[in-house]
Fold:
Amino acid sequence: MTAREWLRKYTSIFQQAGIDEAAGEAMALLCHALRLGKVEIFSQPERTLTGEQLSLLDSLTARRLRREPSSYITEHREFYGLNLFVDPRVLIPRPETEVLVEAAIEFGRSWVASNLRHMLAADIGTGSGAIAIALAAHIPQAQVYAVDISPGALDVATLNVRRHGLADRITPVQGNLLEQINHKLDLIVANLPYIPSRELAGLQPEIYLHEPVLSLDGGDSGTAVIEAMLRQAPGRIAPGGALFLEIGAGQGERLIPIVRDALPGSGIELVQDLAGIDRCMKVVLMK
Structure:
């Protein structure tokens, strides 16, 4: 069987199984099995697959048909131009989170240019370390705490930090939200759970069967964990500093009065994603 034939066959099988983006999913598994990039496979579509490769692909596709996410199968996810190791201990980074990261990096660069000193930042609920690494990679003057309550998640984040050569500027911290942070921060970025508990069972099986519930469940309202962090925020953000939160659709209006109560006088802005959905809340403290 050639690479082209295999892709055609399993794209069809994945489509019939109800797997989204079937062609891309099949390609991801083929690239992983052959240890090749897409360009190499596209340039050699008549490459004949060996028996060993086909056996490995049978194992990989069986896992995918059980709705295990391909990122866990390949132990790889690209996010904001970063190649990250991921496994079931962490949430798989999503493209929509890049909206949050882009807004935070823009603020961070502007802050550094205005203050002419290093900044102290934190990624709360770091998971794979994706946000912390993106911040450190794109704001060279930032020292970043990567905080998570899960020891397993911190192990993954630490591995990714080392792979990207940023161990000197990113410090893993195990703790509940901001509790272990004893310094005033210039920038806090948080992608915390924001899915209402009652909606978890209605998510795609790739999510509710395989991704960590701790990273998804936002309580009855969907904003319980975010609200808990906001209660910890007073006194932990330096004047002129900012807090960036990823939020779910429709949660901005609910959170605005809570932010105003926790951080009086702060400027609040909602940032939309490409679909026009409020995806990020930007909160800037008065100097």
The first helix runs from residue 3 to 16.
